[in-house]
Structure formats: C-alpha cells, structure tokens
Amino acid sequence: TVQDLIDRLEAEAAADADPETTPDVGIIMGSDSDLPVMEGAYDALDELGFAEQTDFDEAPDARFTYESYVVSAHRTPELMYAYGETAAARGLDVVIAGAGGKSADLPNMTASLAYPIPVIGVPVQEKSVNSVIGMPTGAPIVAVDAGKSFNAALSAAQVLAREHDAIEERLVEYHEGLKGGVADVSAGLHD
Ligand code: RP5
C-alpha cells in the first residue's frame, strides 16, 4: 500500500545507511502511463553503467544505482511529501521527476520538498511544459523539453560526475560515441 511505501521510505531515511549501498538517482513519475516516455531515463543510466536498485538492503550490482517509483501528486500527495522530504536522508543525489497533463505538479512540488537535492523535471507532454518549469524565485527546478527523459538522466549523471570520475569517464565515452555516430551518418548521407 501507499502507507507501506511511506513507512519504508521513512525507515530508510532513519537508517543512516552506507551511501555506497543506497540509490544515487531517484526516478519518479505521476502515473504508470508515463512509463513509455520516462523509460528514456532508464536507458540513459543503463548506458552509463548504472543498475536499477529495487531492494534498499540489497548490495547493488553496480557502483551507481537508480530507483524508480510512481508517485502521484494528486492521488497520493502524502507519498509525494514523504518521497521529497526523505530524499536527502536516503542518500539520493538527484531526482528525475516526470509528469504529464496540464497540471503536471509532481516535478515542481518534489523540487520544493526535496530541496536542496536537485530535481530535474520531465514534462511528459508538450502541454505539461509550463507547469513543470514554472517555479517562483527561490524554489528552483531544472527541466528538459517535453519527453526528453534521456537528457534528464544525462543531466543527473553530470551532477554525480562532479564527485565521481567513473561517471565522468562514462559520460565522455558516451559523447564520443554520439559524435562518432553523427560523423558516420554524415559520411553516409548521400550513399
Ligand atoms: C499526470 O496525469 C500523470 O503524470 C500522467 O501524465 C497524467 C495522466 O495520468 P493517468 O490518468 O494516465 O494515470 O498526473
């Protein structure tokens, strides 16, 4: 139940676990209907060598891990509060929050609740952009263009890369591959 998850988040926050064993990136979305768009964040982090961590106690397969939950601002506001308010104590370094519809309130409310942990907002649709980026002075959010969950995850990795050379190396390697790919396409453009 939602309360079970809230209780677990609060217990993990109180556990003062070794940061090496806790997720580094949180991926949350307002509904499971957002998953087809938000999967780009998993793809990007997987490409950078992250592994998904589903069990907080379990030692993660990879050095860097992400977790993922559906958190609905309007259907489970108490879970949104618990997730944002426990983010720092649970060892998260950055949260990627996606939502769609005209009232995509999860990203910006999570940005407020998780502060000073940075939140990268993903508008799941074009019509969600304004409700994701619209924040008052003093309550920041970083946001990507509609649907760009892959880029949100790259930005999350860039945050971590400042403290972890291994992630910086993977980001550079990814970028070299990207440039190589563009060069290949350009070379073959008129084949
Ligand atoms: C938002 O409302 C969700 O993020 C989703 O994009 C949209 C529709 O949600 P469902 O009705 O598909 O659950 O809160």
Automatic annotation (TrEMBL):
Domain PurE, chain residue ranges per copy: 23-182
Molecular functions per Gene Ontology: 5-(carboxyamino)imidazole ribonucleotide mutase activity
Residues annotated to bind substrate: S31, D34, R75
EC numbers, comma separated: 5.4.99.18
Cross-referenced Pfam families: AIRC (PF00731)
Keywords carried by this UniProt record: Isomerase, Purine biosynthesis
Pathway involvement of the protein, from the record: Purine metabolism; IMP biosynthesis via de novo pathway; 5-amino-1-(5-phospho-D-ribosyl)imidazole-4-carboxylate from 5-amino-1-(5-phospho-D-ribosyl)imidazole (N5-CAIR route): step 2/2
Top-level taxon of the source organism: Archaea
Reaction(s) catalysed by this chain's protein: 5-carboxyamino-1-(5-phospho-D-ribosyl)imidazole + H(+) = 5-amino-1-(5-phospho-D-ribosyl)imidazole-4-carboxylate
Function statement: Catalyzes the conversion of N5-carboxyaminoimidazole ribonucleotide (N5-CAIR) to 4-carboxy-5-aminoimidazole ribonucleotide (CAIR).
Family membership noted in the UniProt record: Belongs to the AIR carboxylase family. Class I subfamily.
The protein, known as: N5-carboxyaminoimidazole ribonucleotide mutase
Organism name: Halorubrum lipolyticum DSM 21995
Source species taxonomy: Archaea, Methanobacteriati, Methanobacteriota, Stenosarchaea group, Halobacteria
Gene: purE
